[in-house]
């Protein structure tokens, strides 16, 4: 069998041989060369085709590699996204076999690994956080064949929302969301809506709910209480100390109530208690509370003294609604304060009129302050030795537009109970300094300061501002305080009085001898003047005991180098007795009743501006 080349050569020989059988070598050469040329062209075309095919194949391969790389990158991104989802996810085939499970799902179920192809039941059984009941709930939801969700608390205490939905190929997708923190936040918000953040006690809203429940259950009592002296602690020692005191008070009150009773903080220093008890038991508990709060507190290394006043209202006698009981307990609380504080009172119908009258006075005092209805009258203090005026005591008077002059005894106690004595006292200070600054002879002016003002913590500032605004020399201003002020809170009171003294202002002890610790007060603070109470002066003519007391006080003042003023001098006999005992100054109707500022000025002008030193 010949090869293609041999057959080609034979055809070329035949083509180059003529009819006579002669071989045309030139023709043969031409044919051979042409054949080689054709073969070379075919080879080049083949090479070109091979090169083109190789290039196309390389492009296809490169495109395929890029697609594979893109798919790998996409799969990686999907895997990263899947494992970093906030929620757990697991996909199951139509046969119920696991296809994919992300890391969050494994974490929420406590699984190190999740075996692909395992059944849903085996998948659930592998979790240490699911018991048979929890796993069964999930199985039934998945087998229902519909979209659904359930909320479960797993064995590790986490709250999880489990959801199932069907896929297009007949499988199902499960997702798990951990809602623990959200539930805790919601629970905290709900808790805060019904509790006081400072003391962790129920607030007014929860108290009302508990009170409604107690009324529905039968007989109950309500206690309303607040702290006597709390504002002074807050103002002088700071709000941080005040907050600490309120927490300590709440803790003491907790120990006085029984299981099932409700202690609530209503705001500020106000508390309330709902008791499943009648009036007698409520009174016993209130008494224990008064004693518990009256014992001294040690707050951040400091001794703090406060007391509490409590009002009691009992259903059904005092009301059958929360509003009635709270209102009547508040009226009883007001009565406890009027009775001297540091005590409790049960509601009585007669209290209502008294309280309403006092509240009317309170509102009218506010109006009087705003409208300038108050004015100052002055009673002169006279030297026993020379008969000259040494100073004046400023006394506030209320010129009511309807009732005329209102007696101080009708409004001063209300002002003190409500705290309105603070702005009223500040006005008195400023007005007394302003008027006295222009008096001839430069006599001193005395202004009374109550315990409530000292508790407020603003007395020193008020005095400094009054002196600064009026230009009155500090040595011409004298503050009068009673012994009860010294008994209230010695540390805070002494601090305020010493601060006032540092301004150059004088401090006198008023009503000396009527308290329980007169001598102790003199020992604790070096007063600039002692004023003998009018009750001793009134009994001078008929009582040896009163004379002995007056004599002792004058002698004590002389020994201490402190001048003594006797109040309430109304007769020449009283004056002569005081002169014989060498009392320094006197004050009373014998010389003058309290008079308006203009009349006081005329007294000084008529004396030619001469004032006893």
Task: Give an account of the 3D structure.
- This is EAL domain-containing protein.
- InterPro entries: Biofilm_reg_signaling, EAL_dom, EAL_sf, GGDEF_dom, Nucleotide_cyclase, PAS-like_dom_sf, Rev_trsase/Diguanyl_cyclase.
- It comes from Muricoccus nepalensis.
- This protein is an alpha/beta fold and 613 residues long.
- It folds into four domains: 63 residues; 96 residues, Beta-Lactamase, CATH 3.30.450; 151 residues, Reverse transcriptase/Diguanylate cyclase domain (Alpha-Beta Plaits); 247 residues, EAL domain (TIM Barrel), CATH 3.20.20.450.
- The protein is built from 23 helices and 22 strands.
- The chain has an eight-stranded mixed β-barrel with strand order 13-14-16-17-18-19-20-21, surrounded by four helices. A five-stranded antiparallel beta sheet has the order 2-1-5-4-3, sandwiched between helices. A five-stranded mixed beta sheet has the order 7-8-6-11-12.
- Helix 8 runs antiparallel to helix 9 and helix 16 packs parallel to helix 18.
Question: What's the structural domain tally?
Answer: 4
Neighbour order of strands in the largest sheet? 13-14-16-17-18-19-20-21
Largest sheet: 8 strands, mixed, barrel
Task: Estimate percent helicity.
Answer: 40-55%
Brief characterization of the structure:
The chain is of the alpha/beta class and 613 residues long. The protein is built from 23 helices and 22 strands.
């Amino acid at each position: 069998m010949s090869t293609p080349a041999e057959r080609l050569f034979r055809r070329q020989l035949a083509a180059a041989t003529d009819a006579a059988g002669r071989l045309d070598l030139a023709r043969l050469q031409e044919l051979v060369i042409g054949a080689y040329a054709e073969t070379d062209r075919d080879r080049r075309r083949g090479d070109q085709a091979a090169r083109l095919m190789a290039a196309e194949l390389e492009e296809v391969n490169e495109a395929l590699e890029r697609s594979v790389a893109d798919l790998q990158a996409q799969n990686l991104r999907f895997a990263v996204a899947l494992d970093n989802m906030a929620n757990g996810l697991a996909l199951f085939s139509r046969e119920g076999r696991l296809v994919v499970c992300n890391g969050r799902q494994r974490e929420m179920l406590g699984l190190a690994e999740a075996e692909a192809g395992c059944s849903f039941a085996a998948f659930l059984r592998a979790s240490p956080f699911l018991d048979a009941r929890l796993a069964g709930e999930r199985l039934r939801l998945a087998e229902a064949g519909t979209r659904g969700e359930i909320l479960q608390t797993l064995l590790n205490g986490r709250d999880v929302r489990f959801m199932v939905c069907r896929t297009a190929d007949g499988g199902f997708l499960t997702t798990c969301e951990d809602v623990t923190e959200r539930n805790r936040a919601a629970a905290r918000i709900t808790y805060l809506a019904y509790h006081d953040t400072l003391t962790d006690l129920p607030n007014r809203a929860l108290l009302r709910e508990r009170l409604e429940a107690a009324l529905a259950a039968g007989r109950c009592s309500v206690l309303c209480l607040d702290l006597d002296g709390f504002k002074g602690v807050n103002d002088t020692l700071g709000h941080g100390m005040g907050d600490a005191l309120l927490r300590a008070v709440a803790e003491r009150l907790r120990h006085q109530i029984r299981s099932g009773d409700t202690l609530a903080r209503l705001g500020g220093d106000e508390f309330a208690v709902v008791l499943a008890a009648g009036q007698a038991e409520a009174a016993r508990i209130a008494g224990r509370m008064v004693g518990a709060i009256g014992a001294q507190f040690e707050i951040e290394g400091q001794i703090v003294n406060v007391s509490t006043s409590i009002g009691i209202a009992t259903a059904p006698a005092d009301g059958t609604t929360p509003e009635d009981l709270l209102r009547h307990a508040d009226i009883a609380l007001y009565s406890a304060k009027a009775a001297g504080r540091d005590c409790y009172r049960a509601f009585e119908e007669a209290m209502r009129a008294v309280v309403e009258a006092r509240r009317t006075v309170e509102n009218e005092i506010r109006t009087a302050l705003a409208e300038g209805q108050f004015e100052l009258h002055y009673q002169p203090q006279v030297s026993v030795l020379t008969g000259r005026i040494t100073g004046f005591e400023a006394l506030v008077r209320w010129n009511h537009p309807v009732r005329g002059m209102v007696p101080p005894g009708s409004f001063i106690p209300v002002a003190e109970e409500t705290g309105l004595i603070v702005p009223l006292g500040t006005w008195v200070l400023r007005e007394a300094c302003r008027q006295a600054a222009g008096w001839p002879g430069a006599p001193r002016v005395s202004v009374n300061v109550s315990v409530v003002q000292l508790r407020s913590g603003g007395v020193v500032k008020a005095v400094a501002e009054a002196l600064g605004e009026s230009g009155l020399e500090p040595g011409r201003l004298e503050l009068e305080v009673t012994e009860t002020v010294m008994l209230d809170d010695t540390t805070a009171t002494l601090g305020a009085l010493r601060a006032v003294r540092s301004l150059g202002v004088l401090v006198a002890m008023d009503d000396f001898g009527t308290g329980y610790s007169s001598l102790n007060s003199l020992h604790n603070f070096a007063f600039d003047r002692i004023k003998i109470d009018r009750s001793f002066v009134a009994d001078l003519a008929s009582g040896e005991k009163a004379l002995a007391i007056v004599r002792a006080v004058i002698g004590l003042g002389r020994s201490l180098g402190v001048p003594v003023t006797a109040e309430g001098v109304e007769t020449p006999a009283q004056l002569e007795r005081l002169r014989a005992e060498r009392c320094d100054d006197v004050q009373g109707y014998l010389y003058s009743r309290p008079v308006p500022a203009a009349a006081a000025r005329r007294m000084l002008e008529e004396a030619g501006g001469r004032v006893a030193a």
